[in-house]
Structure formats: C-alpha cells, structure tokens
Amino acid sequence: MDQTFQLTVNGQRRTILTDPQRPLLQVLREDLKLTGPKLGCGEGQCGACMVLIEGQRQHSCLLPIQDAAGKSITTIEGLAKGEKLHPVQEAFLAESSMQCGFCTSGMILSAVALFNEKPNPADEEILSWMNPQICRCGSYPRILKAVRRARTQIHK
Ligand code: FES
Ligand code: FES
Questions:
Q1: Minimum-distance ligand to the CA of 99?
Q2: Number of domain units in the chain
Q3: Bridging pattern class, strands 3-9 and 72-74
Q4: Is the distance from the beta carbon of residue 102 to the nearest atom of ligand 2 less than 6 Å?
Q5: Which of 19, 109, 122, 146 is least enclosed by beta carbons within 10 angstroms?
Q6: Which atom of ligand 1 is nearest to the CA of 60?
Q7: pLDDT surpasses 80 at 103
Q8: At which of 77, 97, 125 does a domain end?
Q9: What's the order of all strands across the beta sheet hosting 50-53?
Q10: How far apart are the first and last CA of the chain?
Q11: Cβ-contact 49, 60 below 8 angstroms
Q12: Which ligand is nearest to the CA of 47?
C-alpha cells in the first residue's frame, strides 16, 4: 500500500505518495523529474544512479524510498550553488571528461563524496574510490585527471 514520505531533495522539502519499496532512483526521475541520476545496471554495479545522502554516496537504484525518507538527498541538479559550479563539475569540464555523458553525474557525485570524506586523497585512494564507477565510453584517464584537478582546487 502506498505511503507518504518526506524527503529533502537538493535543499527542497518534497512529499511523495508511493510504494515504500520503490527505488529512490525511480522517484527522482519519474516523480521529481530529476533525470541526472541514470538507470544503468539497476543492480548496484555501475554507479550511474549515484546520489549523495547526507553527503555520502549511495546507489539510488537499490535504495527503497522508505530508507531515504527524512534524509537530505543531493543529485547533480543540486550540486552547483546558484551559478557557481562545484569544483568537481568545473574540473570535469576543464578536462573534457565526458563523451556520451551517461556516467558523468554518478562520477561527479562519487568524487564529491570522496572529498567530503577526505579533502586531500592520494592518487591511489582516488583510483580505488572511483574504481567501482563504470564508464562505458572508457573515459577513465580523463575522469581521473579531473578528480586530481578538483583535488588541487579543494585542498587549496
Ligand atoms: S544503475 Fe545503480 S549501480 Fe547501476
Ligand atoms: S562518458 Fe559515456 S559512459 Fe562515461
């Protein structure tokens, strides 16, 4: 039976009436029209659906809406502050780190989650953190370059 849930999405309070088991990804894309998070594998294996929950990365394809209720959720649409892009977004643009762009939202949010935990990660830590994220276009070298570039901005 449908239930009502309160979420804070990109700083805005939202009320959703839905099946408690429905994945957060579906609610974001279909109900709230936030299409930055993508449906790739749907199994927690690719990272295309990544969002931040309370600043930590989370696969939204696997998370039932009932487990996201009451939490603060950030999608790529809410990452910039007004006109000012997040340093990770700026670095991805500066390094042209996308081809089709399908993985880009998840890559960026995953990198932001890393910097939330560790503002100055070592190269090996970046590699290991980003390793589960899949880019079917194979843009890995430029993605890693962008994350390293963002590190220098964030750690200044
Ligand atoms: S769509 Fe969620 S991890 Fe692939
Ligand atoms: S840029 Fe196409 S999937 Fe990564």
A1: 2
A2: 2
A3: parallel
A4: yes
A5: 122
A6: 2
A7: yes
A8: 77
A9: 12-18, 3-9, 72-74, 50-53, 56-59
A10: 51
A11: yes
A12: 1
Neighbours of 43 (CB within 10 A): 9
Residues 118 and 59 in one domain: no
> How far apart are the C-alpha atoms of 10 and 21, rounded to whole Å?
22
Give the Å distance between the CA of 55 and the centre of ligand 2: 24
The alpha carbon of residue 138 and the mean position of all alpha carbons in its chain are separated, in whole angstroms, by: 19
- How far apart are alpha carbons 149 and 116 in whole angstroms? 16
* Residue 44 beta carbon below 6 angstroms from any ligand 1 atom: yes
37: which residues sit within 8 A by CB, 6+ positions away? 25, 28, 29, 48, 49, 50, 51, 60, 75, 76, 105, 106
pTM of the predicted protein model: 0.97
24-60 tens-digit pLDDT: 999 999 999 999 999 999 999 999 999 999 999 999 9
Is 47 a member of any domain? Answer: yes
